[in-house]
Fold these 2 entries.
Entry 1:
Amino acid sequence: MTERRSVLFRGATVVYSYYGRRGAPAVVLIPGFLETRAAFVPLAEQWASRYRVVLVDVLGHGESGCTGYVHTIEDQADAVLAVLRAERIRFFKVAGHSMGGYIALALMERVPDRLRGVMLLNTHPFADSEERRALRRRAMEIAKKEKSSYLHAAIPALVAPENADRLREELRVMAEAARTMPVQGILAAQEGMMLRPDRSGLLRTVQSFPVVVVAGVDDPVIPLEVTKAYWNFPAITERRALTGGHLSFLEAGGSELGW
């Protein structure tokens, strides 16, 4: 069973999909920057046989609205918590891809007693470097002037070059979904990522739940060496390096992901 649902959060509508059966253990799946629920349907359907999966469009992305000109990672985490309140879900696992991983870490900081597992997909816990902030500012200027050109360059770059042809349809779907996003949503997310703090301390101590890290061997956005800088921290219980780029969970050809 799949249902489209929504909840009001700070005056904006947050849209999400609900998979599986009520009463099963809950998993929240959070897409990343420029991503929508559309790209994660195969993963949600894979998990729906064991879990009830809540697949969320983050603020300013997909069908979810904007609450302001800056969406901090903490704002995004609060929006996810609003969805969980609406579904009356107290205990859950969370899987976040890229920016969604930053949101998952914020949830790990905010509600650790409610978590039953964390999966960090092609992401990291560190704050932006000055170099990274400069790159974001340049990207924001391009997005302001010509959103279509910005997306045309950004979406295909998510996968390893050798996978681009095989995943052409998936990338087309992602690009079409991204074109519907308001520029405000793109800029607000970039601003929020620049403001996020270092949360690596959360992973330096053992947690009461499993923490799984999934990386792409050829990830152009978050290189494998960045992931390796933290994946031996005490909280990490499992490490997986998949073939592919930033969408490694998709590029690896249906590799089973789970806790």
Entry 2:
Amino acid sequence: MAHDESNRWLGDKPQGNLLDDVVRRVPVLAERQLPPYQRLLHAIWTDERLSAVCTTRRNTDHIRENTDAARRFEPLEEAAIHQLRDATLAHGSRLCADCDGRCSIAAGTQADLGTLTRFLTDHEHHGDRSEARRLYAELPPEARDWSGADLEAARSACPNRLDFARLLPQVERHLA
């Protein structure tokens, strides 16, 4: 099965059109003539709060593209960063990059809500379907069992206000 350039970076079967939205909403990234994820690296490298970026690369071509992106790096203007943020938020967050477990505590559950939504993101947006299923299966049963959890309390406690009531049934459907 042939993949276009953007699908090649998402894994075995990408979902959604976040990258298309980013190109449309943040034209300066497309103007740099970099593959989609290297465009995002430029945005990440612009943020002076970050000192390192860890990326998963599947082959040496990916590494070469990241190296090329680093050589051609130019910081983005603040307006482009805001456009990128808006494009990402418009897709609806599926994971909390700030997760510290407070959502599970607030929900009164031993389920690892942050990890469950991260695995859903890996499955649906990064295309790492088999790996997401494998990692989900390795979780102890109590880390997967969100039944009885107060999902509204979890949402309120989450720094990114994830909609657990919408996301967790998707976890069950795609990963269980």
